[in-house]
Design a protein that fits this description.
It is built from twelve helices and eight strands. The chain is an alpha/beta fold and 314 residues long. It has one domain: TIM Barrel, CATH 3.20.20. It has an eight-stranded parallel beta barrel, surrounded by six helices. The N terminus is likely disordered.
Length: 314
Amino acid sequence: MSPPSRRGANVRPDMSLRLQGTYTALVTPFLDQPDQPIDWSAFDALVEKQIAGGVTGVAPCGTTGESPTLSHEEHAQVVERTVKRARGRLQVVAGTGSNSTREAIALSQHAERAGADAVMVVVPYYNRPTQEGLLRHFVAVARSVSLPVVIYNIPVRTGVDLTAETLARIAEAAPNVVATKEATGNVVRAQKIAQSMGGRLAVLCGDDALTLPMVAVGARGVISVTSNVLPGEVSRATKLALEGSFEEARAAHFALLPLHESLFLEASPAPIKAALALRGIAKDVVRPPLAACTEGTRRALVAALEAFPARDRA
């Protein structure tokens, strides 16, 4: 893995790529076999389902895609396959984060070579860097590519919170940092970022259940888990909110809320994989140390999914 370069230091953000709408945090389907290989047939079908459902883009190799258990070769294959399958019909925002700056750079550079439209870089996890360390990490990654960069902040999983002040410093130092996926669960935080940096950074909601309130205070869309199984419904709810049709958006949001909540009764992506299996889209297989969700969660998923019409069924 090569050291950071200043390749993107003076790159202007790609303003032709508008990060707005619904982006699906793609699961990585696995076959129910001893070594749990990637189920490419199910993966292709899932990407096609997203296109048919009208999402703006997909984000492969994020947490929902079980990136911690993908080998480097598999990670590369998933990004390449997504770009090839998308064929320009939707945006591909490739997950390229790591708790190693060198590895995040290498993954981001690979995504650029593969033809991704943007990269999504999660806050480094486990090693708990300081705010100065986070600044240096993200600037180094951003300067190693010319692609737009989405910063992904999810303290509950990473163990460290990227502050709004540090985010502003990163955006000032790296012009191709163009968006942030806010999965802090804090609408006030998202509001402050949208208020202070909304003209510079797109705020994307990272919690399905908070999409409507976050759009109401300035977010431009969502990176969604639920849209794996209901892309049309999630896209519609997000679109209504972005258009300011809040009465209709509220009805659509509330209709989805039981499913949003059911999908996080246990560690994601076990529930969304169970939901996909219930719809016949992919097998209910997660890699260790994750385990398939319990029967109680499965019953909640069945009840939530039955509220939606057959047109969204596989």
